[in-house]
Specification:
single chain, alpha/beta, Rossmann fold, UDP-N-acetylmuramoyl-L-alanine:D-glutamate ligase, 2 domains, five-stranded parallel sheet, 17 strands
Length: 363
């Protein structure tokens, strides 16, 4: 198989995708010449332009130029004119997740944030903790984060934190030294067909850990707990009860935002105050805290980062208010995610809640 190492100029087809644009930035930070194309402009392509990365709008053979490697996203089919041109000229190609996995080989520590729900929020929280003085991580997020003006934080070449997406088992290309699983649910059944296959994929994911690696899992989730109990290596659990990290003295303010004492095996580590609503944010923030503290962050830095965090775009994002009606937008496309969004809404002062749902995936 082609390896990204040894190439100089890389062309990314679909460079405006939520993961591809971040990959472009990381590649450039690692010393590669980077360019790409996409079918339309977006906040991601605009950000790349601001950073001086050439982006062609519209996909045609001549866009490849003198690139010596082509990386494409899963949405780009073999008959795409740029992929066809690459084959005609004998230019090697790599699928996005494979390229990302090869990149992780160059980092001392690789943290993969996995789970069917909460990956983007947890990874974004970790980026904010890094911004506030935590470990100087390079962070790769599958969403647009306002404080990063995109989905990528360029940090050191020693620590890489990335969403580890389970779709089509793409997370199995990574080389994690820390693997976090927030939950396992019946998602992407168009690919997996049944729950057993989904659980098996997550089992293979933690099987990628080296002997001295660490598995961090939310043991509130019964499927994660089974993997956690079976795992014989280093492991740390978090959850609402019966875990290494748990919350105590949990309260919600008038806007539905939680605060709680973070307990680690009975010891009070400090108080976390969030400015995002919903009970699921307690779990997500404990996940981010568990990773950060394992990586050596001080608790006050964790608390500062989590207090400063605001939701990623399309994650219970406040759009505005009209005639006394507050409008929020959430990416939720799975029953568990819809339930979490409605829980967050229920904690905000209101008279009535109206939910408008768009089916936008196989789930």
């Amino acid at each position: 198989m082609t390896h990204i190492e040894g190439h100089k100029k890389i062309h990314l087809i679909g460079i405006g995708g939520c993961s591809m644009n971040g990959l472009a930035q990381i590649l450039r930070a690692r010393g590669y010449q980077v360019q790409g194309s996409d079918s339309t402009t977006s906040p991601f392509t605009e950000r790349l332009g601001e950073l001086g990365i050439p982006v062609a709008i519209g996909q045609k053979a001549e866009n490849i130029g003198d690139a010596d490697l082509v990386v494409y996203s899963a949405a780009i089919k073999p008959d795409n004119p740029e992929r066809a041109e690459a084959r005609r000229r004998g230019i090697p190609e790599l699928e996005r997740s494979v390229a990302l996995g090869q990149l992780t080989e160059g980092y001392k520590e690789v943290v993969g944030i996995a789970g069917c729900h909460g990956k983007t929020t947890i990874t974004s929280m970790l980026a904010m903790i890094s911004e506030k003085g935590g470990a100087n991580a390079t962070v790769h997020i599958g969403g647009f984060v306002d404080f990063l003006h995109g989905g990528t934080r360029i940090g050191s070449h020693d620590l890489f934190i990335t969403e580890a997406c389970e779709y089509v088992e793409s997370f199995l290309t990574l080389r994690p030294t820390v693997a976090l699983i927030n939950n396992i649910d019946n998602d992407h059944l168009d690919y997996y067909k049944n729950m057993d296959n989904i659980v098996a994929a997550f089992r293979r994911f933690i099987g990628l850990l080296p002997e001295n690696g660490v598995f961090i899992g939310c043991t509130d989730d019964s499927r994660v707990k089974r993997l956690f109990d079976d795992f014989r290596g280093n492991k740390i659990s978090y959850g609402m009860k019966d875990a290494d990290y748990t919350p105590a003295n949990l309260v919600y303010d008038g806007n539905g935002c939680p605060s709680f004492d973070l307990m680690f095996r009975g010891e009070n580590m400090g108080r976390i105050t969030l400015h995002i609503p919903g009970s699921h944010t307690v779990i997500d923030s404990m996940a981010a805290a568990a990773v950060s503290l394992y990586l050596g962050a001080e608790m006050h830095t964790v608390c500062s980062g989590l207090a400063a965090f605001r939701n990623t775009q399309r994650r219970f994002e406040f759009y505005g208010e009209r005639d006394g009606i507050k409008i929020y937008h959430d990416y939720a496309h799975h029953p568990a995610e819809a339930a979490a969004a409605l829980d967050a809404a229920s904690r905000i002062p209101h008279r009535n809640i109206y939910c408008v749902f768009q089916c936008n995936s196989y789930t």
